[in-house]
Amino acid sequence: MVELINFANYYTNRDMIDNSSAGLKSLLAQLDVDGIEALFCDPWDAAVFPASSIHGVHLNFWPTWLDFWHGNQQALERQFGSKENILAYFGGTEPEHMLACYRRDISQAKAAAAKYIVFHVSHNELDEIYTWRFRADSLAVVDATIEMVNSIVGDIPPDMTILFENLWWPGLTLLEPRLVDRLLSRIRHPKVGIMLDTGHLMNTNPELQDERQGVEYILSVLGKLGTLSNSIQGIHLHQSLSGAYVKQSRCQTAPPVDLAASMAHIMQIDQHRPFSDSAAKQILELVEPEYLVHEFIVASREELVVNTNLQRKALR
């Protein structure tokens, strides 16, 4: 099992390693992990993030994208208010722009000799994160993902694995085995699988009270997948117990659009906290993943070290 941390090349993360490969090497040694799953917010700089440290690449994504992909301008203007806002969000006006962004990330992943790439399979509109009343269902999101990925699959090397990540919004939630099978069986690429995100899966059950209940729930969901669980090749390991907040914050009418407030709201739901209960070992024992990614949202190197050490201690 290859043990990794998630690490973006955003300036705040570069500051944690003094914007140097030596700083990155020092951090990985301090954490006793094998490397990183990279997210390229900026162009990849091999002088700071050498290919030897990169095992996987998490592709950039748009949480709201379905109507853009289908060219539904009326729905887009309802959501974003103007063509200028649509352009600002997507950086273009046609679906081909989205594909070009994915191809750019894939090209950088190829150059870094990444073994795998990660696709989010999810969609939500901004008001839906408050109301939890979704206009698109998981089948629609999965089918659009199949169409989109197959349109760029020729750019992905045959020996690079595509791992699809579960979320709690409509899409790949892992709660419907038939949709897991539909997604994996219809991608025209020889190497596909699942990146199990444990915190995202916990977010699908607002009744969870503690980590042990969370682990039991995850194991139950994986058991219902049957042989499809064999497709899980990696784990984004973290925990999220946000059910009380979800129940309290759910409303009939969404507040006025405020991107900063919306991001804060999402992070209250998707907490990315470390496991401290040794029950988390049961997930690894069941899945036996090829890649284990300690995935946290942190504000400092010190916080990253504390979280990673706490979770690794639980796994021991």
- What is the string of SSEs from the N terminus onward? EHHEEHHHHEHHEHEHHEHHHEH
Q: Report the portion of residues in β strands.
A: 5-15%
Report the principal-axis shape: globular
Q: For the record, what is the CATH homologous superfamily label?
A: Divalent-metal-dependent TIM barrel enzymes
The portion of residues assigned to helices is 40-55%
Q: What is the helix tally?
A: 15
**Count of domain modules:** 1
Q: Give the beta-strand count.
A: 8
Tell me the name of the CATH class.
Alpha Beta
Mean pLDDT: 96
Poorly predicted parts? none
Structural category is alpha/beta
- What is the fold named in CATH at topology level? TIM Barrel
Name of the CATH architecture: Alpha-Beta Barrel
Major β-sheet strand ordering: 1-2-3-4-5-6-7-8
Radius of gyration: 19 Å
Question: Whole-Å distance between the termini?
Answer: 14 Å
* Major sheet attributes: 8 strands, parallel, barrel
Brief overview:
This protein has 316 residues and is an alpha/beta fold. The chain has helices at 11-16, 21-31, 66-70, 73-80, 83-90, 95-111, 128-131, 138-152, 177-186, 198-202, 211-225, 243-249, 259-269, 281-287, 301-315, and strands at residues 2-8, 35-39, 54-58, 116-120, 161-165, 192-197, 232-237, 291-294. Residues 96-241 form the Xylose isomerase-like TIM barrel domain.
What does this protein look like?
With 316 residues, this protein is α/β, with parallel strands linked by helices. It has helices at residues 11-16, 21-31, 66-70, 73-80, 83-90, 95-111, 128-131, 138-152, 177-186, 198-202, 211-225, 243-249, 259-269, 281-287, 301-315, and strands at 2-8, 35-39, 54-58, 116-120, 161-165, 192-197, 232-237, 291-294. The protein has one domain (2-315): TIM Barrel (Alpha-Beta Barrel), CATH 3.20.20. It contains 15 helices and 8 strands. It has an 8-stranded parallel β-barrel with strand order 1-2-3-4-5-6-7-8. Helix 8 (138-152) packs parallel to helix 9. The radius of gyration is 19 Å and the shape is globular.
